[in-house]
C-alpha cells in the first residue's frame, strides 16, 4: 500500500476520467449486496510490468482510496471511495441496513444489522454531485495491497 506524504486539500474523491470499472460487493453475511461503477477505476486500465505492488501515488488513471483518521473510520477500518449515488445499485438487503449517526448527525453510516459490516456513508449531497462514501473492504476480487491510498485527517 502506498500513501501520499502531504495533507490533501479539497474533496476526498478522485475526479472522474473517461475510464471506469464495475465492482460487486456484499457484507460479510451476504444479506446486503450491491454493484457500483467507479471512475476512474481502482487499478490502471492496462496491466503494468510489475503487478505485484501498489500503484504509485501520482498515477492519475486510478481512484485513490481514502484512509480517514476520524474516530469512526479508524474504529471500523473504513477504506473509502466516493462514487456518484446514481452509480451504486443495491441488489438486495435494504431491510438489513441500519444506520448510525455521529457528530453533526447529517451523514448516516449504514451497516448490516446482521453481521455489522460497514457498507457506506450517505454524504447527502445535492444532485448532480450526490455521492456515497463506500467501503472498499467489501468489494469482491480486489487486492487491497495493489491500491493507491490517500490519508485524510478527520475529527478525533
In short:
The protein has 1 helix and 11 strands, in the order ββββαβββββββ.
CATH architecture: Beta Complex
Which percent bin holds the helix content? under 10%
Topology as H/E string?
EEEEHEEEEEEE
Biggest beta sheet summary: 5 strands, antiparallel
Give me the CATH fold name. Metal Binding Protein, Guanine Nucleotide Exchange Factor, Chain A
The value of Rg in angstroms is 15 Å
Measured by DSSP, the beta-strand proportion falls in 25-35%
Form type: globular
Secondary structure layout plus pairing:
Layout: E1 2-3, E2 21-26, E3 33-38, E4 65-68, H1 71-76, E5 80-81, E6 88-92, E7 97-100, E8 109-112, E9 118-122, E10 132-135, E11 148-152
Parallel strand pairs: 1-11, 4-11
Antiparallel strand pairs: 2-3, 3-6, 5-10, 7-8, 8-9, 9-10
How would you characterize the overall build of this protein?
The protein has 1 helix and 11 strands; from the N terminus they run ββββαβββββββ. The chain has one domain: Beta Complex (Metal Binding Protein, Guanine Nucleotide Exchange Factor, Chain A). With 156 residues, the protein is mainly beta. It has one helix spanning 71-76; strands spanning 2-3, 21-26, 33-38, 65-68, 80-81, 88-92, 97-100, 109-112, 118-122, 132-135, 148-152. The model is unreliable at 1-5 (pLDDT under 50). The strands form 3 sheets. Strands 5-10-9-8-7 form a 5-stranded antiparallel sheet, with no helix packed on it. A 3-stranded parallel sheet has the order 1-11-4, with no helix packed on it.
Amino acid at each position: 500500500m502506498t500513501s501520499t506524504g502531504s495533507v490533501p486539500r479539497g474533496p476526498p474523491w478522485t475526479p472522474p476520467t473517461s475510464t471506469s470499472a464495475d465492482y460487486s460487493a456484499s457484507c460479510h453475511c451476504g444479506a446486503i449486496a450491491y454493484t457500483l461503477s467507479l471512475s476512474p477505476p481502482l487499478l490502471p486500465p492496462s496491466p503494468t510490468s510489475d503487478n505485484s505492488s501498489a500503484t504509485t501515488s501520482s498515477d492519475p488513471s486510478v481512484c485513490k482510496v481514502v484512509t480517514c483518521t476520524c474516530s469512526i473510520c479508524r474504529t471500523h477500518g473504513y477504506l473509502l471511495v466516493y462514487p456518484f449515488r446514481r452509480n451504486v445499485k443495491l441488489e438486495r438487503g435494504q431491510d438489513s441496513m441500519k444506520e448510525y449517526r455521529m457528530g453533526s448527525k447529517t451523514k448516516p453510516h449504514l451497516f448490516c444489522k446482521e453481521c455489522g459490516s460497514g457498507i457506506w456513508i450517505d454524504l447527502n449531497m445535492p444532485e448532480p454531485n450526490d455521492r456515497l462514501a463506500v467501503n472498499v473492504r467489501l468489494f469482491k476480487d480486489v487486492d487491497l495491497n495493489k491500491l493507491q491510498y490517500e490519508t485524510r485527517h478527520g475529527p478525533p
